[in-house]
Amino acid sequence: MEKPLVTPHLIIREITLADDQFILKLLNMPSWLKFIGDRNIHTVTDARRYIRTGPLRSYEENGFGAWVVVSKATLRPAGMCGFFKRAYLDVPDLGFAFLPEYEGKGYAREAVTACLDYARTSLGLQSLLAITLPHNDRCISLLERTGFRFLKTIAPQNDESLSLYELKQLF
């Protein structure tokens, strides 16, 4: 992303190593652990490694990745939103997570909408996927409100079953 995405309430920008404290907090909040899983990020050093091997590597290899969503009101990171390229999926998938104090304010939908627009206009993606646990009702609701439709249940690498959603027409 050459420059941050700016929406009425948010600034969406690339993650940097300076976001290590935020990443440590986000990846250890109860809803992340429940719906996304433990990434074994327990120290600032772990968070910096995650940033290097996850988002920064994805920017370099794919031209996209997870981005920090900053609240314009507080100028603090509120969450993360972006695209992931997983070995078990044919096309990138959308992912997002927000700190509890920023949930229920419409920020996730605003961030997802901005990222989908960026996928259309700058990345040239034809379609997107999204994965979630079948009981993550808030995630499913947001996916459906932004145009995603349930495709099927998958179990990558014999892990827990996931619901796979698809957004076919980005253009």
TrEMBL record:
Alphabetized InterPro entries for the sequence: Acyl_CoA_acyltransferase, GNAT_dom, N-acetyltransferase
Gene3D superfamilies the record matches: 3.40.630.30
Pfam families per record: Acetyltransf_3
Domain N-acetyltransferase, first and last residues per copy: 10-171
Alphabetical list of PANTHER family matching this protein: GNAT FAMILY, PUTATIVE (AFU_ORTHOLOGUE AFUA_3G00765)-RELATED-RELATED, N-ACETYLTRANSFERASE DOMAIN-CONTAINING PROTEIN
Name the UniProt record assigns to this protein: GNAT family N-acetyltransferase
Organism lineage string: Bacteria, Pseudomonadati, Bacteroidota, Chitinophagia, Chitinophagales
